[in-house]
Amino acid sequence: MKIIAFGGSNSQHSINKHLATYAAGLFENAEVEVLDLNDFAMPLFSVDLEKEVGQHEIAKAFLAKLASADILVVSLAENNNNYSTAFKNVFDWSSRIDKEVFQKKPMLLMATSPGTRGGASVLEIGRNALPRYGAEIKATFSLPAFNANFDLEENKISNAELDKELKNLIKECF
Ligand SMILES: Cc1cc2nc3c(=O)[nH]c(=O)nc-3n(C[C@H](O)[C@H](O)[C@H](O)COP(=O)(O)O)c2cc1C
């Protein structure tokens, strides 16, 4: 079973990439590949640029990575209650090639932020919108107050209750 995991962020120190990496590692008998959205950087999408360049090769490469997965583990960064520009840009370019961006893959959709809402707004946006783009969301999880609840040295959720919640979700939903 292959898992493709990524944080919806282009931050070099993305807390969502940390969470996605940790959660993907909880699946049993899985080969995990963690993507970095910096490897899928493209110019800001515009219909005018699209007329010039057509389907972007990097978006094709992103879609090919998603196609190689049995399960997607995604953790969305929240910027101004919404997707990060980096995620939205790769999403926009990819959706012009194939509207089923997430290709009917079972998805664990998460979000985390340093605040106590844990990216609740972007998680809700993703939960509503991504199924219209081929995501089969099996479970959602928000990790509030990342700095208090995630141990960056051990690379794991340090809050035992939240850790148990995530592990149970994975066991029950996948
Ligand atoms: C432009 C900008 C807007 C932000 N807006 C929000 C927000 O609406 N809600 C929130 O909880 N955190 C917000 N944050 C803080 C992010 O959650 C924080 O930077 C987090 O580390 C982003 O995830 P990442 O590290 O995976 O990129 C914002 C950060 C930036 C730079």
What's the name of the CATH homologous superfamily?
Flavodoxin domain
Round the Cα radius of gyration to an integer and report it: 15 Å
Classify the secondary structure makeup into a structural class: alpha/beta
User: How does CATH name the architecture?
Assistant: 3-Layer(aba) Sandwich
Helix and strand pattern:
EHEHHEHEHEHEEH
Distance between the amino and carboxyl termini = 12 Å
Write down the CATH topology. Answer: Rossmann fold
Q: Ions, cofactors, ligands: which are bound?
A: flavin mononucleotide
- What is the average of the pLDDT values? 98
Helix content: 25-40%
Report the CATH C-level class: Alpha Beta
Describe the largest sheet.
Answer: 5 strands, parallel
Question: How many DSSP H or I helices?
Answer: 7
Number of domains: 1
User: So what's the oligomer here?
Assistant: single chain
**Portion in beta strands:** 15-25%
Q: Note poorly predicted spans.
A: none
Shape call? globular
